[in-house]
Structure formats: C-alpha cells, structure tokens
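2024-03-11 09:14:02 DEBUG pipeline.ingest accepted 1 chain
2024-03-11 09:14:02 DEBUG pipeline.ingest length=150
2024-03-11 09:14:03 DEBUG pipeline.predict start
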Amino acid sequence: MAAQRKMSKDEKTSTTSRSSGGAPRRPPSDASQNVVVITGQVRVEPTLRSTASEEVLLTFDLVSGSEEERRTVPVSWRGPTGLVPKANRGDEVVVLGTVQRRFFRTAGATAHVTDVRADLVARTPAAKQKLMATAVARLAAMYGDRQSSQ
C-alpha cells in the first residue's frame, strides 16, 4: 500500500465535511484516491499572494481541451516562497495534484472554491516527462496491490 502523506488543513476541511447526520465523513479509502493530471495553457498571468501561515499561494487558470470543448480549470499551489513553480501567461504546462474544495472568510462570510491543488507544475519537456512518470508511479502505488490480488 502507498505511504500516506500528511494532510494539510485544507484537505482535512474538505474530507471531514459534515453529512446530513452531523457526523464527520471519513477520508476516502484507497479505492477512491484523488489524483489529477491536467495539461493546458496558462490563461492569465498567475497571482501570487501570502497566506496567514507565511506560505505563498499561487493561483492561475489553465485552459485545457480541444477547440470544440475548451475547459478552464482553476489551479492553486501553496508552499514556501523558495519553491514557487514558474508559470507565465501562455505557458503550456502539466499539473499533477488533487481536486480540493477550499473554504475561506471574506467580508464576514464563508466562501469556497473548488480547484486543482497542484503538487507539481512542469513547463519544460524534461520536467513534463518527469511529472508524468511521478503520476504513473503514484497511480501504480495506489492500485498495484489490487492488481496482484484480482
């Protein structure tokens, strides 16, 4: 079984939502892992801001899909200042991450956004190839044990 990484506060919030009975839901089992790989073009110049926890939050929209079915996907990356991925408007990138629902306070109310939380963002061909290998390894680690037992 794959090693579990420590969940961030945002991930805990999104996986411990209250059901109609008021009891917290459990995080998803291995059978329902949350892994996203998306390729596309950075639509507008990414926004970089600091968080209360002294991390930085990089957000951008990624346009993906064919001409007939273009999709715009909001992407966020959170981490220390020295590790901010490079992404500029118009860059073709590959993102590896998870779908998340983030909650935050604004003007006295609680708001939320659903986006892709990027673990890795790759721009160069070599970095894209490495990211894809990481994605495949992650999926193999999650489903490898099941394949051998079926």
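2024-03-11 09:14:41 DEBUG pipeline.report The longest helix spans residues 125-149.
2024-03-11 09:14:41 DEBUG pipeline.predict end
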